[in-house]
Q: What sequence folds into this?
């Protein structure tokens, strides 16, 4: 019976997803992109169909608005924002396995979400998990520093209407996009642009970690701290290795003007 | 001493703007305010208006296609159109309400592209070079039983960079600072809408959209709902007591509509961003009036003051942490207008520059990672600090701010220019105290020149 209900709901989800064109990354597309996946449903749950429909709708809208905000506020960023239907959360193993392909398809960030609804005798527990897969962190972290690139946030959904705001924080996406851009630019030897984006990312992560309004569990907090250390290591490499190279003109100028102070604090008070 | 070089700046800018005194007989609307209605397929503007405001459709894209929401989404833009018109007091404005439901044809990205390429024309010709354009659009959406409205704003001047060129004659010679606003597009935070508001939108729409024979609520209607007429266009004059006189450009009835205080208060609560839109209109009008020759109109005399008031109205009612970029813009617009005013007209307005700095301090605190904001802040600080050396202690701080801006945006030539100008000013000071030596300054200027040319 449980399987039958799940099948109905998943079929409905597929139909909903089919209403918009799939733009999943694939071979041949190398533009830098951020992918928003359609929310998926945790398998094995016993959902109330109306509940699921409402939540899926809300998340799709939230992602669309987030995509619109990014387009409006960053008109000059060389990034496209696409949606990809029918996605589910990725495991670390899957992300590591796919990182190579996704990296070469230009994916900076994969945003996915999972809805979990469990009905008991008299109540329904609803929970959502948002997952940010930073493909460049996984791809470059495999060989250059330990970092898995998978970050998440779990939130219980109450009856109020504000949970979406707590769930989808603009600073999350801004931070992970900046990290992805920074690492890709570093890999492309565009050192100045790498410095700029990684410094920005560091500040967003600090803001995120210190914001009392953002609910972070200890493991999430630890993962963010590890990510900050990863960024710091990259920043140190960039300013050390980039000096005097093409693509590092600003780094070269600042190194020559400020000397050791710049090497110690490459974001100049920015993180 | 500072006054004297500010005076020289003003003289140079007056010479630059002398062309404005030449009257140019072009096709301008007979009224300084005009409204029209058009569709996404055939976007139109008022070519003669100093500033065009295009109100793209507010949409409701929910799956249920709720009738009341769809209707409110369609009707709200008329209320916004009349509200913007009622607030307009800067000199010359055309406001176009754009209708349509096709998500592809009405895609704001497409419509902005049409405007930016100058492909929209109207009864008074195409957009003229230097004319200001502001676009506002948005959407209604519903989540967890709460209805929201969210708006977006974009602005530019046609075929003209939005950079602020600030030529200064200083003890170090003629220096030109170049600044840019921190943003020309912003997304506002979604704002909750009471379901009763929807009824209000629709009710006020029907009340407002009746043109009457005289400025009197009991006067007979000339035409009910003329705002549903395709491609209508009216010149508008204020007729006192909240009434507007509509003067048709085409074969449409002449008459009066009333702008109620109720509409204004209602919209201020629902869409406080309209105050920021008004400030943007003021800023663009200020620039058009002083920098473009193709427009003939009489600008309001105190535009920087008026637009600061509108910016403040916006800043006061929103949470800066929730929408930092729009709030930063609300600080930067009046600051930019004041800086330009120092250059355009008011050689004695160093005090105004001081006031500018106060606002920019708050903006930088809010958004420390915006290079153009850091740059405009550094320019204002440089103008105040480094011409006489009286506040030389801040020079190191300004240098640090500019270094930080270089990290944030390495390819930003405006930041490099400001830093170079700062060093030029410092070089001329007889006593620099603990600051950089002459040879250090020379070396840095040379390095910056190299950086600029790479």
A:
């Amino acid at each position: 019976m449980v399987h039958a209900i799940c099948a109905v709901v998943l079929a409905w989800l597929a139909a909903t997803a089919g209403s918009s064109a799939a733009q999943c990354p694939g071979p041949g597309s190398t533009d830098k992109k951020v992918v928003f996946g359609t929310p998926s449903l945790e398998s094995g749950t016993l959902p109330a169909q109306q509940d699921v429909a409402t939540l899926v709708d809300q998340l799709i809208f939230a992602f669309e608005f987030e995509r619109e905000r990014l387009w409006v506020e960053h008109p000059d960023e060389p990034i496209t924002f696409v949606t990809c239907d029918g996605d589910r959360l990725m495991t670390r193993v899957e992300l590591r396995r796919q990182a190579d392909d996704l990296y070469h398809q230009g994916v900076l960030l994969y945003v996915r979400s999972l809805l979990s609804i469990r009905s008991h005798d008299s109540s329904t527990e609803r929970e959502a998990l948002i997952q940010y897969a930073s493909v460049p962190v996984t791809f470059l972290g495999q060989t250059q520093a330990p970092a898995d690139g998978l970050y998440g946030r779990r939130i219980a959904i109450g009856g109020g209407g504000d949970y979406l705001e707590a769930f989808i924080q603009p600073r999350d996406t801004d931070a992970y996009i900046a990290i992805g851009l920074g690492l890709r630019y570093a890999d492309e030897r565009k050192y100045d642009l790498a410095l700029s984006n990684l410094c920005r990312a560091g500040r967003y992560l600090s803001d995120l970690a210190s914001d009392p309004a953002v609910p972070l569990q200890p493991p999430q907090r630890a993962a963010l701290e590890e990510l900050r250390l990863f960024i710091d290591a990259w920043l140190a490499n960039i300013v050390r290795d980039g000096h005097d190279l093409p693509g590092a003109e600003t780094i070269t100028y600042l190194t020559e003007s400020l000397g050791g102070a710049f090497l110690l604090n490459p974001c100049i008070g920015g993180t | 001493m500072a006054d004297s070089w500010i005076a020289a700046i003003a003289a140079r800018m007056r010479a630059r703007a002398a062309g404005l005194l030449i009257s140019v007989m072009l096709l301008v609307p007979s009224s300084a305010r005009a409204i029209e209605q058009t569709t996404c397929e055939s976007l139109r503007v008022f070519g003669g208006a100093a500033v065009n405001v295009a109100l793209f459709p507010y949409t409701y894209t929910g799956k249920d296609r709720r009738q009341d929401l769809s209707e409110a989404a369609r009707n709200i833009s008329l209320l916004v159109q009349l509200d913007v018109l009622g607030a307009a007091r800067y000199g010359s404005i055309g406001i176009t309400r754009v209708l349509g439901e096709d998500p592809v044809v009405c895609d704001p990205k497409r419509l902005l592209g049409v405007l930016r390429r100058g492909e929209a024309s109207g009864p008074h010709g195409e957009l003229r070079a230097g004319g200001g354009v502001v676009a506002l659009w948005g959407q209604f959406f519903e989540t967890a039983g709460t209805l929201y409205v969210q708006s977006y704003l974009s602005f530019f001047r046609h075929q003209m960079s939005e950079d602020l060129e600030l030529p200064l004659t200083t003890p170090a010679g003629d220096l030109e600072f170049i600044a840019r606003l921190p943003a020309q597009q912003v997304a506002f935070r979604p704002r909750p809408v009471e379901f009763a508001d929807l009824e209000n939108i629709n009710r006020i729409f029907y009340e407002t959209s009746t043109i009457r024979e005289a400025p009197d609520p009991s006067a007979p209607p000339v035409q009910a709902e003329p705002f549903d007429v395709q491609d209508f266009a009216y010149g508008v004059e204020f007729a006192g007591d909240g009434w507007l006189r509509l003067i048709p450009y085409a074969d449409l009835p002449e008459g009066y509509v009333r702008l109620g205080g109720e509409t204004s208060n209602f919209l201020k609560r629902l869409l406080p961003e309209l105050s920021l839109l008004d400030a943007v209109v003021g800023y663009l009008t200020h620039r058009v009036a002083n920098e473009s020759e193709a427009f003939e109109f009489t600008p309001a005399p105190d535009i920087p003051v008026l637009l600061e008031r509108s910016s403040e109205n916006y800043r006061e009612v929103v949470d800066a942490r929730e929408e930092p970029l729009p709030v930063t813009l609300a600080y930067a617009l009046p600051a930019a207008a004041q800086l330009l005013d120092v250059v355009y007209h008011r050689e004695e307005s160093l005090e105004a520059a001081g006031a500018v700095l106060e606002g920019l301090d708050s903006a930088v605190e809010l958004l420390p990672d915006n290079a153009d904001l850091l740059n405009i802040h550094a320019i204002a600080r440089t103008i105040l600090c480094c011409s006489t050396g009286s506040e030389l202690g801040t020079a190191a701080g300004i240098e640090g701010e500019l270094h930080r801006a270089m990290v944030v945006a390495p390819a930003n030539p405006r930041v490099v220019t400001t830093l170079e100008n700062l060093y030029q000013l410092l070089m001329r000071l007889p006593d620099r105290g603990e600051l950089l030596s002459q040879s250090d300054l020379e070396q840095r200027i040379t390095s910056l020149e190299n950086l600029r040319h790479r």
The first strand of chain A starts at residue 33 and ends at 37. Strands of chain A lie at 33-37, 40-41, 80-84, 107-119, 124-133, 150-156. Residues 1-21 of chain A have pLDDT under 50 and may be disordered. The CA atoms of residues 95 and 240 of chain A lie 30 Å apart.
